[in-house]
């Protein structure tokens, strides 16, 4: 079993390749859509992609844990856990939008050590490795230097993800920013890592939604926590704030909690 985090990048790439092969086969074709208990849609593509990813992990790192959206947890007491979202943005996927992706996070000792956002339709692969920086298709990327809310570009997936109190907090913050945008699902986190977005604020997320982006953003020099400023993990409450700089993060968090 590989012990070095840098040795895991090829495995993460293999997982993304396998997921893309399954999901792209189904993209923009008629799909059987099932509503899960949390009322989010799941498709044949989601399940096939995660199955393919799990087969690779079973063959290459069988002692590692897995936390996947579609097929549940395995061995979460392992020192290393792979967190998988085969299709983040299922609604985008089933409506033919290209802004869905595959998310892969690696927890090592409970902290995010590697994160990937793979965008199969856009053919962009964003990878961050702790202590080694972040790349898009092999080229280094870094967050912007924005330190002021008044100059920040903020994005979230949709107003529909917020409960009323959380929406009030987000609306208060976002109206103080230079620009706010909606949509994009996981791509907003990639944009933040690449320096074209400065803030992402969301709620109602699951570990497979935020841990892959967290590894990417931290490696790109950004800050990502829950709304109380605590590090993200498997037991976080699903409210996420990601910022380009510590200064911007502190200002945004203060406005959210006002």
From TrEMBL:
<dbReference type="InterPro" id="IPR020583">
    <property type="entry name" value="Inositol_monoP_metal-BS"/>
</dbReference>
<dbReference type="GO" id="GO:0046872">
    <property type="term" value="F:metal ion binding"/>
</dbReference>
<keyword id="KW-0479">Metal-binding</keyword>
<keyword id="KW-0368">Histidine biosynthesis</keyword>
<feature type="binding site">
    <location>
        <position position="87"/>
    </location>
    <ligand>
        <name>Mg(2+)</name>
    </ligand>
</feature>
<comment type="pathway">
    <text>Amino-acid biosynthesis; L-histidine biosynthesis; L-histidine from 5-phospho-alpha-D-ribose 1-diphosphate: step 8/9.</text>
</comment>
<keyword id="KW-0460">Magnesium</keyword>
<feature type="binding site">
    <location>
        <position position="85"/>
    </location>
    <ligand>
        <name>Mg(2+)</name>
    </ligand>
</feature>
<feature type="binding site">
    <location>
        <position position="88"/>
    </location>
    <ligand>
        <name>Mg(2+)</name>
    </ligand>
</feature>
<dbReference type="Pfam" id="PF00459">
    <property type="entry name" value="Inositol_P"/>
</dbReference>
<comment type="similarity">
    <text>Belongs to the inositol monophosphatase superfamily.</text>
</comment>
<protein>
    <recommendedName>
        <fullName>Histidinol-phosphatase</fullName>
        <ecNumber>3.1.3.15</ecNumber>
    </recommendedName>
</protein>
<dbReference type="InterPro" id="IPR000760">
    <property type="entry name" value="Inositol_monophosphatase-like"/>
</dbReference>
<keyword id="KW-0028">Amino-acid biosynthesis</keyword>
<dbReference type="GO" id="GO:0000105">
    <property type="term" value="P:L-histidine biosynthetic process"/>
</dbReference>
<feature type="binding site">
    <location>
        <position position="69"/>
    </location>
    <ligand>
        <name>Mg(2+)</name>
    </ligand>
</feature>
<dbReference type="GO" id="GO:0004401">
    <property type="term" value="F:histidinol-phosphatase activity"/>
</dbReference>
<dbReference type="InterPro" id="IPR011809">
    <property type="entry name" value="His_9_proposed"/>
</dbReference>
<dbReference type="InterPro" id="IPR051090">
    <property type="entry name" value="Inositol_monoP_superfamily"/>
</dbReference>
<feature type="binding site">
    <location>
        <position position="209"/>
    </location>
    <ligand>
        <name>Mg(2+)</name>
    </ligand>
</feature>
<keyword id="KW-0378">Hydrolase</keyword>
